[in-house]
Design a protein that fits this description.
- The chain is mainly alpha-helical and about 400 residues long.
- It is about 50% helix and about 5% strand.
- It has helices spanning about 45-50, 60-75, 80-95, 100-110, 115-135, 145-150, 155-175, 205-215, 220-230, 235, 270-275, 285-300, 310-320, 325-330, 335-345, 350-355, 360-370; strands spanning about 15-20, 25-30, 35-40, 245, 250, 265.
- Helix 8 (about 205-215) runs antiparallel to helix 9, helix 8 (about 205-215) crosses helix 12 (about 285-300) and helix 9 (about 220-230) packs across helix 13 (about 310-320).
Length: about 400
């Protein structure tokens, strides 16, 4: 005759002990595993076995289990004990936090040590506006997802996502310092934003720009070529020293790059030809801006998308080589997400090969071959006249 199983002492979902004949049976079915049973001679032995099976969590005593049941009865429906515990920790940790005003001051000091001043300025403009909206005297640990949602509510999708990324960086930093338990931005949804591909120059437009610069602004030919064929930012090219373009690479030190992370970009064959005809010399921002504008107008390029030279490099390098990781590394990105989200534009098959085959005009190449060097030939010093003997 089979014995009827009678639950004696439940130990939570999937755990129980019941009588089995003259002994006791410990039963356990974890949510992430298979059912396990163990026959024991006494109830205490069954309870010890059941407690020993919980490898991830410490076993609860009878008093703790009864207390947990009482706590659950006090909570509103749908609120778990874990959520209640986190809320309690947040209230306790508030005293250990600092005000938004103090946190922004420390954040600015730390970030100024390795970020470009313009990047720090943009970060602080976003954070200062948020602090004014949420309250500069509020503790960082007291900021809630509702505060973040209210701040980004009226922003356009692209602006909303940018604000959330900058605020999220600040609050992740605050969590690491122990000033907040969690990042409130993680509970605010990003906007669905289908961004149009970035504007690029066609291979013919790029050729027109460079050949026009050869005629009307030769001093910016090398900087333009480096932006087009190495993906260097305009703000980086004006900080790039003369000796950084050598030995087959464009070497960008941390003091040059936007993110303060050094990188090297290989000089492709056509860029090498441009640099042989027009050796690179560092230019000031005004010289680069005025020379680029003069070449653009001479080439008849009325449409000039933002950062189109860098975007053109990314687009055509990917179309030719189909290596997103290499292109992202050349552009200074940690991964390919930013590349696919912002920089890749649609290009027709063969555009990449045509783009990286652009060369300086024949006269420039001929001049280099005649001089036998990478620079203009210096005139010989005048010979001293011989004095006639009296």
């Amino acid at each position: 005759m089979k014995h009827r199983r009678r639950p004696v002492n439940p130990f939570g979902p999937g755990r129980s002990i019941y009588r089995a004949g003259t002994g006791w049976m410990a039963y356990m079915r974890p949510s992430h595993g298979v059912m396990r049973r163990h026959r024991c001679a006494t109830y205490d032995e069954a309870r010890l076995w059941l407690d020993a099976q919980e490898k991830d969590l410490p076993p609860l005593t009878h008093a703790q289990y009864a207390e947990a049941q009482s706590a659950c009865s006090l909570l509103p429906q749908g609120v778990s004990l874990v959520e209640a515990a986190r809320a309690w920790l947040a209230s306790v940790r508030t005293a250990e936090s600092v005000s938004m005003e103090e946190a922004l001051r420390v954040f600015k000091e730390e970030r100024s040590a390795f970020l470009r001043p313009s990047t720090v300025t943009f970060y602080m403009s976003v954070l200062t506006r948020f602090a004014a909206s949420a309250g500069v005297d509020r503790m960082v640990s007291g900021i809630r997802p509702e505060d973040v949602s209210a701040f980004v509510a009226d922003a356009k999708p692209s602006t909303r996502n940018a604000l959330l990324r900058h605020l999220g960086g600040f609050f992740s930093w605050s969590v690491k310092r122990g000033w907040a338990l969690e990042n409130p931005c993680k509970k605010v949804e990003m906007a669905r934003n289908v961004e149009a591909p970035r504007g690029v120059l066609s291979p013919k437009e790029a050729a027109s720009l460079l050949h026009a610069a050869e005629k009307c602004a030769p001093g910016v030919v090398a900087p333009l070529a480096i932006q087009l064929f190495a993906g260097v930012r305009p703000a980086e090219i004006v900080r790039l020293p003369d000796d950084a373009v050598a030995n087959g690479y464009v070497t960008l030190a941390g003091a040059v790059t936007k993110t303060a992370d050094a990188r090297t970009v290989p000089i492709r064959d056509n860029l090498s030809a441009w640099l042989a005809a027009y050796p690179y010399r560092k230019v000031s921002p005004s010289v680069l801006r005025n020379g680029t504008e003069k070449a653009r107008k001479a080439a008849g390029l009325a449409d000039w998308p933002k950062d189109c030279l860098r975007h053109s490099f990314a687009t055509y390098a990917y179309e030719r080589d189909k290596n997103a990781a290499a292109v992202a590394a050349d552009m200074g990105h940690a991964g390919t997400d930013v590349f696919f989200r912002h920089y890749r534009a649609l290009a027709k098959p063969g555009d990449g090969k045509e783009f990286f085959a652009l060369l300086p005009c024949a006269k420039s190449v001929q001049k280099v071959s005649q001089n036998g060097s990478n620079g203009p030939k210096r005139p010989n010093a005048p010979k001293a006249k011989r004095m006639k003997k009296p």
